Amino acid sequence: MIETLPLQSAIMFAVAAVFGLGGTWLLWQLRQPQGPARVYVYRMVGIMALSGGVVLAMSAWAMWQWSVEA
Fold it and tell me: S-S: 49 plus which of 16, 23, 28, 34, CB 3.0-4.6 Å?
């Protein structure tokens, strides 16, 4: 039986995708020479955004599974 994706989970997946893509883009920019301040900021924000996207996607998946079981 296929259950539909709840709106709350869909929104969480969309926000997770934005965070993940934004973090990946920032880390991808580090391939080019940058100033030390920009390297620091891109690295910190990129890693936090990417990890936040992963955690949010896992939470959205868990919430989706819990709504299917209920």
Answer: 23
